[in-house]
Known about the structure:
alpha/beta
Amino acid sequence: MNKAEIYDYLKAHQVGYEAAEHPAVYNMEEMSQIDLPHPEVDAKNLFVRDDKKANYYLITVKGDKRVNLKEFRRQHSLRNLSFASEQDLMEIMGLIPGAVTPLGLLNDTDLKVQLYLDRDFLGGSGLVGVHPNDNTATIYLQTQDLIRLIQEHGNKVEIVEI
């Protein structure tokens, strides 16, 4: 699904959202330079795989957090982790670097990717800011709606403390 298809998908599933169009961004530093409506809930997404390339994970955390992959692996009893390749990102989720988002899981037809979602998104306003499969926009939706969409698609979602 591209950006327009994501918007249509959200409407079809009765998910309310607020969209902010902006120039393409490729990292959290570039995101911080843009005037967005809810920067405190912008998500950082790490697409990783285990050392056997058997399991893929998307780790989604609040943008100001750092993720220690060795510590994360140990806490969740996973094999050694490293970043997945651009080729894997395109083949599995149909995304380019800089556009990584949990909504990309809707393109994961083989259900290869498990989502690990930062528990902090459930507090406060309950909003999460993610790209709509394109890094020229950020959409804000309720975290519970995002979880429901991903689970209905068939990917596993685990809420974690990071």
